[in-house]
Amino acid sequence: MNRGNTAGRVPVVGDVTNWVVEDISSSVVQSIHQDSADEAENDAAHEYAKGRAAVGQAAEEAVRNAVINSDLHPDTIEDLERAARTGAEIAHGDGAKWESAGDAS
To answer: In this model, does residue 20 exceed pLDDT 90?
Structure first.
């Protein structure tokens, strides 16, 4: 049984076919847009985490270098390193929020 171009011969089928194609096309475009947005968000989060870790490590290393020949107790040095790392990471987060708020305007 050869049905040929059923959509062309039955107007209602043609309309329904067009609607389905439009819905699918719209859905595919929306999905691609969402996937791209999700990917960009994941990439940004990854880069943020790398930057936060790097600034914390740099601050900790700076303290380590500053006290290398001191007579400070190792526990005190560790406390200073932790405080420098934590403060730098918090400042990085604050800076990222400030930068993000500036982008929104």
So the answer is: no
